[in-house]
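If I may wish for something, please walk me through the protein I am sending here so I can picture the backbone:
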Amino acid sequence: MQEERKRILDMVENGTITAQEALVLLEALGKQTAPVAQPVNQEQKQEYTSTDQADPHSHHKQQSSDFIEDLKRDFTVVGERFMQFLQGTVDKIKEFDFEMPFGEPVIFQEKLVAGQGQYQDISIDIANGKVEIFPTEESDTHADVTVKSYKNTSEEEAKNRFHSDFLFKTDGNKLRLYSDMKTTSVQVALYVPKQAYNDISARLFNGDFRAKHIEANSFKVKTTNGKVKLEELKFGRADIETVNGSVQVQQVIGDSIEVETINGRIYVDGKLKEVEGSSVSGHVILTTKDKEARKIEGTAVAGTVELYVRKDVSLKGEATSQLGKIDVQLADVTQLNQSEQLLNKKVRFTKIVESESETLKVYGNAKTGTVLVRYTVDDE
Protein backbone atom coordinates (compact mmCIF):
# COMPACT_ATOMS: atom_id res chain seq x y z
CA MET A 1 0.00 0.00 0.00
CA GLN A 2 2.89 2.35 0.68
CA GLU A 3 4.16 1.73 -2.83
CA GLU A 4 0.73 2.44 -4.25
CA ARG A 5 0.53 5.62 -2.24
CA LYS A 6 3.91 6.74 -3.56
CA ARG A 7 2.93 5.87 -7.11
CA ILE A 8 -0.28 7.93 -6.97
CA LEU A 9 1.49 10.86 -5.34
CA ASP A 10 4.11 10.69 -8.08
CA MET A 11 1.31 10.85 -10.66
CA VAL A 12 0.08 14.09 -9.11
CA GLU A 13 3.59 15.49 -8.93
CA ASN A 14 4.25 14.60 -12.57
CA GLY A 15 0.97 16.12 -13.70
CA THR A 16 -0.53 12.83 -14.89
CA ILE A 17 -3.57 13.47 -12.72
CA THR A 18 -4.64 16.52 -10.74
CA ALA A 19 -5.01 16.62 -6.98
CA GLN A 20 -8.74 17.16 -7.43
CA GLU A 21 -9.04 14.10 -9.65
CA ALA A 22 -7.04 12.04 -7.18
CA LEU A 23 -9.32 13.04 -4.32
CA VAL A 24 -12.35 12.05 -6.34
CA LEU A 25 -10.76 8.73 -7.26
CA LEU A 26 -9.96 8.00 -3.64
CA GLU A 27 -13.50 8.85 -2.66
CA ALA A 28 -14.79 6.40 -5.25
CA LEU A 29 -12.37 3.72 -4.08
CA GLY A 30 -13.55 4.30 -0.54
CA LYS A 31 -17.11 3.65 -1.68
CA GLN A 32 -16.00 0.47 -3.38
CA THR A 33 -14.44 -0.95 -0.21
CA ALA A 34 -17.33 0.06 2.06
CA PRO A 35 -20.40 -2.17 2.64
CA VAL A 36 -23.59 -1.23 0.81
CA ALA A 37 -25.85 0.44 3.36
CA GLN A 38 -28.57 1.78 1.05
CA PRO A 39 -30.25 0.60 -2.15
CA VAL A 40 -28.63 1.81 -5.36
CA ASN A 41 -30.24 2.47 -8.72
CA GLN A 42 -29.74 0.32 -11.79
CA GLU A 43 -27.01 2.53 -13.21
CA GLN A 44 -25.01 2.38 -9.99
CA LYS A 45 -25.44 -1.41 -9.93
CA GLN A 46 -23.87 -1.66 -13.36
CA GLU A 47 -20.88 0.37 -12.25
CA TYR A 48 -20.29 -1.16 -8.85
CA THR A 49 -21.72 -4.69 -8.92
CA SER A 50 -18.34 -6.39 -8.83
CA THR A 51 -16.89 -4.25 -6.07
CA ASP A 52 -19.71 -3.06 -3.82
CA GLN A 53 -20.14 -6.34 -1.96
CA ALA A 54 -19.83 -6.26 1.82
CA ASP A 55 -16.40 -7.42 2.88
CA PRO A 56 -16.63 -10.17 5.51
CA HIS A 57 -13.06 -9.51 6.60
CA SER A 58 -13.48 -6.45 8.77
CA HIS A 59 -9.77 -6.27 9.60
CA HIS A 60 -8.77 -5.89 5.96
CA LYS A 61 -11.65 -3.51 5.40
CA GLN A 62 -10.45 -1.31 8.24
CA GLN A 63 -6.90 -1.36 6.87
CA SER A 64 -8.17 -0.33 3.46
CA SER A 65 -10.29 2.43 4.98
CA ASP A 66 -7.32 3.75 6.97
CA PHE A 67 -5.17 3.64 3.85
CA ILE A 68 -7.77 5.60 1.89
CA GLU A 69 -8.07 8.18 4.63
CA ASP A 70 -4.28 8.60 4.76
CA LEU A 71 -4.16 9.10 1.02
CA LYS A 72 -7.01 11.59 1.15
CA ARG A 73 -5.13 13.59 3.76
CA ASP A 74 -2.01 13.55 1.59
CA PHE A 75 -3.93 14.73 -1.46
CA THR A 76 -5.77 17.33 0.56
CA VAL A 77 -2.44 18.90 1.48
CA VAL A 78 -1.18 18.75 -2.11
CA GLY A 79 -4.49 19.96 -3.51
CA GLU A 80 -4.86 22.81 -1.04
CA ARG A 81 -1.36 24.06 -1.74
CA PHE A 82 -1.95 24.04 -5.49
CA MET A 83 -5.41 25.58 -5.27
CA GLN A 84 -4.18 28.24 -2.86
CA PHE A 85 -1.43 29.09 -5.30
CA LEU A 86 -3.80 29.21 -8.27
CA GLN A 87 -6.55 31.08 -6.42
CA GLY A 88 -4.04 33.45 -4.86
CA THR A 89 -2.63 34.28 -8.27
CA VAL A 90 -6.08 34.85 -9.77
CA ASP A 91 -7.19 36.96 -6.80
CA LYS A 92 -4.09 39.12 -7.03
CA ILE A 93 -4.79 39.70 -10.70
CA LYS A 94 -8.45 40.48 -10.02
CA GLU A 95 -7.52 42.95 -7.30
CA PHE A 96 -4.83 44.61 -9.37
CA ASP A 97 -6.52 48.00 -9.17
CA PHE A 98 -4.28 50.97 -9.85
CA GLU A 99 -6.69 53.46 -8.37
CA MET A 100 -6.49 52.22 -4.79
CA PRO A 101 -2.87 52.77 -3.77
CA PHE A 102 -2.21 55.99 -5.66
CA GLY A 103 -5.12 58.24 -4.78
CA GLU A 104 -7.02 60.41 -7.26
CA PRO A 105 -5.75 60.30 -10.87
CA VAL A 106 -5.12 63.09 -13.33
CA ILE A 107 -7.52 62.46 -16.24
CA PHE A 108 -7.19 63.86 -19.74
CA GLN A 109 -7.91 62.97 -23.38
CA GLU A 110 -5.49 62.80 -26.27
CA LYS A 111 -6.01 62.34 -30.01
CA LEU A 112 -2.95 60.87 -31.68
CA VAL A 113 -2.36 60.54 -35.42
CA ALA A 114 0.06 58.03 -36.92
CA GLY A 115 -0.24 59.48 -40.42
CA GLN A 116 -0.87 57.77 -43.72
CA GLY A 117 1.95 55.24 -43.54
CA GLN A 118 1.22 51.90 -45.24
CA TYR A 119 1.40 48.86 -42.99
CA GLN A 120 0.14 45.27 -42.93
CA ASP A 121 0.79 44.34 -39.27
CA ILE A 122 -0.52 45.81 -36.02
CA SER A 123 1.31 45.22 -32.74
CA ILE A 124 -0.24 46.24 -29.40
CA ASP A 125 1.43 45.88 -26.00
CA ILE A 126 -0.29 47.61 -23.06
CA ALA A 127 0.56 47.15 -19.38
CA ASN A 128 -2.55 48.85 -18.02
CA GLY A 129 -5.51 49.80 -20.14
CA LYS A 130 -8.22 48.86 -22.61
CA VAL A 131 -7.96 48.68 -26.41
CA GLU A 132 -10.71 48.69 -29.03
CA ILE A 133 -10.04 48.50 -32.78
CA PHE A 134 -12.41 49.84 -35.41
CA PRO A 135 -12.07 50.12 -39.20
CA THR A 136 -12.49 53.49 -40.87
CA GLU A 137 -12.87 54.69 -44.44
CA GLU A 138 -10.25 57.39 -43.77
CA SER A 139 -6.67 56.94 -44.92
CA ASP A 140 -5.23 58.24 -41.64
CA THR A 141 -4.63 56.04 -38.62
CA HIS A 142 -5.56 57.71 -35.35
CA ALA A 143 -6.24 56.86 -31.73
CA ASP A 144 -8.52 58.49 -29.18
CA VAL A 145 -6.93 57.92 -25.77
CA THR A 146 -8.41 58.53 -22.33
CA VAL A 147 -5.53 58.73 -19.87
CA LYS A 148 -5.69 58.21 -16.11
CA SER A 149 -2.33 59.01 -14.59
CA TYR A 150 -1.45 58.42 -10.94
CA LYS A 151 1.35 59.57 -8.64
CA ASN A 152 1.73 62.96 -10.32
CA THR A 153 2.31 66.39 -8.86
CA SER A 154 0.55 68.19 -11.72
CA GLU A 155 -1.39 67.69 -14.96
CA GLU A 156 1.58 69.01 -16.91
CA GLU A 157 3.82 66.34 -15.42
CA ALA A 158 1.25 63.64 -16.26
CA LYS A 159 0.99 64.79 -19.88
CA ASN A 160 4.75 65.01 -20.26
CA ARG A 161 5.13 61.47 -18.95
CA PHE A 162 2.41 60.19 -21.30
CA HIS A 163 3.93 61.79 -24.40
CA SER A 164 7.36 60.53 -23.41
CA ASP A 165 6.41 56.93 -22.62
CA PHE A 166 3.43 56.17 -24.89
CA LEU A 167 4.45 54.85 -28.31
CA PHE A 168 2.11 55.18 -31.30
CA LYS A 169 3.71 55.14 -34.73
CA THR A 170 4.25 53.19 -37.93
CA ASP A 171 7.53 51.33 -38.07
CA GLY A 172 8.26 49.91 -41.50
CA ASN A 173 5.36 47.59 -42.33
CA LYS A 174 3.97 47.63 -38.78
CA LEU A 175 1.82 49.91 -36.64
CA ARG A 176 3.01 49.91 -33.04
CA LEU A 177 0.97 50.80 -29.97
CA TYR A 178 2.99 50.42 -26.78
CA SER A 179 2.75 51.44 -23.13
CA ASP A 180 4.59 49.88 -20.18
CA MET A 181 3.44 52.57 -17.71
CA LYS A 182 2.32 50.76 -14.57
CA THR A 183 0.72 53.77 -12.88
CA THR A 184 -1.00 55.15 -16.00
CA SER A 185 -4.14 53.60 -17.42
CA VAL A 186 -4.83 54.18 -21.13
CA GLN A 187 -8.18 53.48 -22.77
CA VAL A 188 -7.53 53.42 -26.50
CA ALA A 189 -10.03 53.56 -29.36
CA LEU A 190 -7.87 52.72 -32.37
CA TYR A 191 -9.14 53.59 -35.86
CA VAL A 192 -7.35 51.88 -38.74
CA PRO A 193 -7.98 51.97 -42.52
CA LYS A 194 -10.46 49.36 -43.69
CA GLN A 195 -8.35 46.72 -45.43
CA ALA A 196 -7.15 43.13 -45.09
CA TYR A 197 -4.21 42.96 -42.67
CA ASN A 198 -1.56 40.29 -42.36
CA ASP A 199 -1.11 40.01 -38.58
CA ILE A 200 -2.79 41.68 -35.61
CA SER A 201 -1.33 40.86 -32.21
CA ALA A 202 -2.23 42.30 -28.81
CA ARG A 203 -0.88 41.72 -25.31
CA LEU A 204 -2.54 43.36 -22.31
CA PHE A 205 -1.68 42.79 -18.68
CA ASN A 206 -4.61 44.56 -17.02
CA GLY A 207 -7.43 45.44 -19.37
CA ASP A 208 -9.93 44.34 -22.01
CA PHE A 209 -9.49 43.93 -25.76
CA ARG A 210 -12.17 44.33 -28.41
CA ALA A 211 -12.14 44.27 -32.21
CA LYS A 212 -15.02 44.60 -34.67
CA HIS A 213 -15.36 44.41 -38.46
CA ILE A 214 -11.66 43.69 -38.98
CA GLU A 215 -10.05 41.30 -41.47
CA ALA A 216 -6.60 39.78 -40.94
CA ASN A 217 -4.74 36.62 -41.84
CA SER A 218 -3.72 36.12 -38.21
CA PHE A 219 -5.09 37.32 -34.86
CA LYS A 220 -3.18 36.79 -31.61
CA VAL A 221 -4.63 38.17 -28.38
CA LYS A 222 -3.39 37.53 -24.85
CA THR A 223 -4.61 39.14 -21.63
CA THR A 224 -3.59 38.42 -18.05
CA ASN A 225 -6.57 40.12 -16.44
CA GLY A 226 -9.20 41.16 -18.93
CA LYS A 227 -11.96 40.14 -21.31
CA VAL A 228 -11.60 39.56 -25.03
CA LYS A 229 -14.48 40.30 -27.38
CA LEU A 230 -14.25 39.78 -31.15
CA GLU A 231 -17.21 40.51 -33.41
CA GLU A 232 -17.77 40.09 -37.15
CA LEU A 233 -14.15 39.35 -37.94
CA LYS A 234 -12.65 37.50 -40.87
CA PHE A 235 -9.36 35.66 -40.35
CA GLY A 236 -7.17 32.74 -41.31
CA ARG A 237 -6.15 31.78 -37.79
CA ALA A 238 -6.93 33.25 -34.37
CA ASP A 239 -5.22 32.43 -31.06
CA ILE A 240 -6.83 33.86 -27.93
CA GLU A 241 -5.55 33.36 -24.39
CA THR A 242 -6.57 34.78 -21.02
CA VAL A 243 -5.53 34.01 -17.46
CA ASN A 244 -8.52 35.68 -15.80
CA GLY A 245 -11.19 36.81 -18.22
CA SER A 246 -13.95 35.63 -20.50
CA VAL A 247 -13.64 35.28 -24.28
CA GLN A 248 -16.56 36.07 -26.58
CA VAL A 249 -16.25 35.52 -30.33
CA GLN A 250 -19.37 36.11 -32.43
CA GLN A 251 -20.35 36.13 -36.11
CA VAL A 252 -16.84 35.44 -37.35
CA ILE A 253 -15.54 33.70 -40.46
CA GLY A 254 -12.24 31.87 -40.23
CA ASP A 255 -10.22 28.78 -40.95
CA SER A 256 -9.19 27.99 -37.37
CA ILE A 257 -9.44 29.43 -33.87
CA GLU A 258 -7.99 28.28 -30.56
CA VAL A 259 -9.10 29.77 -27.23
CA GLU A 260 -7.61 29.05 -23.81
CA THR A 261 -8.52 30.44 -20.40
CA ILE A 262 -7.62 29.55 -16.83
CA ASN A 263 -10.54 31.36 -15.21
CA GLY A 264 -13.21 32.44 -17.65
CA ARG A 265 -16.12 31.55 -19.89
CA ILE A 266 -15.52 30.81 -23.57
CA TYR A 267 -18.14 31.51 -26.22
CA VAL A 268 -17.32 31.01 -29.91
CA ASP A 269 -19.90 31.19 -32.69
CA GLY A 270 -19.12 31.49 -36.38
CA LYS A 271 -18.43 29.92 -39.73
CA LEU A 272 -15.25 28.12 -38.72
CA LYS A 273 -13.44 25.08 -40.10
CA GLU A 274 -11.54 24.28 -36.89
CA VAL A 275 -12.54 25.33 -33.36
CA GLU A 276 -10.75 24.55 -30.10
CA GLY A 277 -11.71 25.88 -26.68
CA SER A 278 -10.21 24.97 -23.31
CA SER A 279 -10.92 26.38 -19.85
CA VAL A 280 -9.74 25.27 -16.42
CA SER A 281 -12.58 27.03 -14.61
CA GLY A 282 -15.35 28.14 -16.92
CA HIS A 283 -18.17 27.21 -19.26
CA VAL A 284 -17.08 26.36 -22.84
CA ILE A 285 -19.60 26.92 -25.65
CA LEU A 286 -18.43 26.30 -29.23
CA THR A 287 -20.44 26.52 -32.45
CA THR A 288 -19.41 26.05 -36.06
CA LYS A 289 -21.78 26.77 -38.92
CA ASP A 290 -19.31 25.94 -41.68
CA LYS A 291 -20.42 23.08 -43.90
CA GLU A 292 -16.75 22.23 -44.53
CA ALA A 293 -15.77 22.21 -40.86
CA ARG A 294 -13.03 19.73 -39.96
CA LYS A 295 -12.81 19.82 -36.14
CA ILE A 296 -14.59 21.12 -33.06
CA GLU A 297 -13.02 20.37 -29.68
CA GLY A 298 -13.99 21.64 -26.24
CA THR A 299 -12.46 20.78 -22.86
CA ALA A 300 -13.06 22.00 -19.31
CA VAL A 301 -11.79 20.94 -15.90
CA ALA A 302 -14.46 22.62 -13.76
CA GLY A 303 -17.22 23.58 -16.16
CA THR A 304 -19.66 22.41 -18.80
CA VAL A 305 -18.79 21.90 -22.46
CA GLU A 306 -21.40 22.62 -25.15
CA LEU A 307 -20.74 21.81 -28.81
CA TYR A 308 -23.05 22.80 -31.67
CA VAL A 309 -22.62 21.46 -35.22
CA ARG A 310 -24.50 21.47 -38.51
CA LYS A 311 -27.02 18.72 -39.15
CA ASP A 312 -26.06 18.18 -42.80
CA VAL A 313 -22.42 17.09 -42.35
CA SER A 314 -20.67 13.79 -41.67
CA LEU A 315 -19.61 13.36 -38.05
CA LYS A 316 -17.15 11.34 -36.04
CA GLY A 317 -17.29 12.20 -32.37
CA GLU A 318 -16.38 11.33 -28.82
CA ALA A 319 -17.68 12.81 -25.57
CA THR A 320 -16.06 11.96 -22.26
CA SER A 321 -16.47 12.97 -18.63
CA GLN A 322 -15.00 11.78 -15.35
CA LEU A 323 -17.67 13.01 -12.93
CA GLY A 324 -20.29 14.81 -15.00
CA LYS A 325 -22.95 13.76 -17.49
CA ILE A 326 -22.85 13.16 -21.23
CA ASP A 327 -25.79 14.49 -23.20
CA VAL A 328 -25.52 13.78 -26.93
CA GLN A 329 -28.80 14.55 -28.65
CA LEU A 330 -28.14 13.95 -32.34
CA ALA A 331 -31.09 11.82 -33.38
CA ASP A 332 -29.68 10.50 -36.66
CA VAL A 333 -26.17 9.43 -35.60
CA THR A 334 -24.97 5.89 -35.03
CA GLN A 335 -23.89 5.18 -31.46
CA LEU A 336 -20.67 3.20 -31.71
CA ASN A 337 -19.97 2.82 -28.04
CA GLN A 338 -21.44 4.03 -24.79
CA SER A 339 -19.84 3.16 -21.46
CA GLU A 340 -20.10 4.46 -17.91
CA GLN A 341 -17.18 3.02 -16.02
CA LEU A 342 -15.83 4.53 -12.85
CA LEU A 343 -14.33 7.96 -13.66
CA ASN A 344 -14.53 7.20 -17.37
CA LYS A 345 -17.86 7.92 -19.04
CA LYS A 346 -17.66 7.88 -22.80
CA VAL A 347 -19.94 8.13 -25.82
CA ARG A 348 -18.70 7.63 -29.37
CA PHE A 349 -20.82 8.37 -32.42
CA THR A 350 -20.61 8.62 -36.19
CA LYS A 351 -22.78 9.85 -39.02
CA ILE A 352 -22.21 9.52 -42.75
CA VAL A 353 -23.71 11.98 -45.20
CA GLU A 354 -23.12 10.50 -48.66
CA SER A 355 -22.80 13.83 -50.46
CA GLU A 356 -20.22 15.18 -47.98
CA SER A 357 -16.61 13.96 -48.23
CA GLU A 358 -15.30 16.01 -45.29
CA THR A 359 -15.94 14.48 -41.86
CA LEU A 360 -16.27 16.81 -38.89
CA LYS A 361 -14.40 15.47 -35.89
CA VAL A 362 -16.21 16.30 -32.64
CA TYR A 363 -14.52 15.96 -29.25
CA GLY A 364 -15.78 17.12 -25.87
CA ASN A 365 -14.34 16.47 -22.42
CA ALA A 366 -15.50 17.83 -19.07
CA LYS A 367 -13.83 16.37 -16.01
CA THR A 368 -16.46 17.49 -13.51
CA GLY A 369 -19.20 19.00 -15.68
CA THR A 370 -21.59 17.99 -18.45
CA VAL A 371 -20.69 17.46 -22.12
CA LEU A 372 -23.55 18.50 -24.36
CA VAL A 373 -23.63 17.99 -28.16
CA ARG A 374 -26.42 19.44 -30.31
CA TYR A 375 -27.26 20.50 -33.84
CA THR A 376 -27.35 24.21 -34.60
CA VAL A 377 -30.82 25.67 -35.00
CA ASP A 378 -29.93 27.82 -38.01
CA ASP A 379 -27.26 26.60 -40.45
CA GLU A 380 -27.47 29.50 -42.82
Notes: The helical segments are 2-13, 19-33, 42-48, 58-94, 99-102, 155-165.
